[in-house]
Each structure stands twice: as structure tokens, then as C-alpha cells.
Amino acid sequence: MAACTQPLAERYKNILTESIDSATEFSRFLSQKEAADLRGVSKQAIAALVKRGRLSTVTIAGHKLVLRSEVEEFAALAPGRPPKKKAAKKSAKKQS
Fold first, then answer.
1. Taking the domains of the chain in order of start, what are their residue ranges?
2. Terminal C-alpha separation, the chain
3. pLDDT tens digits along 10-67
């Protein structure tokens, strides 16, 4: 068995530092359920936004996660059908 040249305390410090870095990196992402709770909408609404490409996802271990920053900065479109374009009004009286 080979002896480790690093002191035990230093090895634990490195392991803890790596764990904290990966935890910080992971906190950038939310599950679709967490995103729905944050926005006050249903999970299906978040899934629809992902399907339409309005929110991007990352798949980790088979789970689709969304970026926390995208969810927090998301701006919803105006609800309902967009108004029809108004046609230019023609002169009511024809000139002879």
C-alpha cells in the first residue's frame, strides 16, 4: 500500500473545498417543480415554457434542470391573443 504524501488535514480541506464548489455550482439550477414554486405557477406551465424554448434546460442524472437566473429574470408575454392589425381607413366619400 502506497503512503499518501499529503497530510490528512490537507486532504480533508481539499475534499471540503471541492464539495462546496460543486454545491455552489449546483445551486445555479432548479428543478422544474422548484421553478414553478418560485414563479407561482404549475409545473406544467414551466414544462410548456421549456418545450417552447423560452427556458433552457440542462439534463443531470436524467432530470431536466433550468437555470435559476433565467427563471428569476423571466418576463411573461402579454396574456391572450394578440390584437389584429388595423386596416388603413379609406376615405368615406369618393371625390368626383
1. 29-75
2. 108
3. 665 565 555 445 555 667 889 999 999 999 999 999 999 999 988 888 888 888 899 8
Between CA 74 and CA 55 the distance in angstroms is: 8
Residue 38 one-letter amino acid: L
Please indicate, yes or no, whether the overall pTM of this predicted structure exceeds 0.90. Answer: no
Partnered with residue 30 across adjacent β-strands are 66
HSE-up (13 A, CA, CB side) for residue 11:
5
Give the CA distances from residue 57 to residues 4, 19, 25, in Å, rounded to whole numbers and listed in that order.
41, 23, 15
Which cell numbers in the block locate residue 66? 433550468
- CA 46 to CA 84: how far, in whole Å? 28
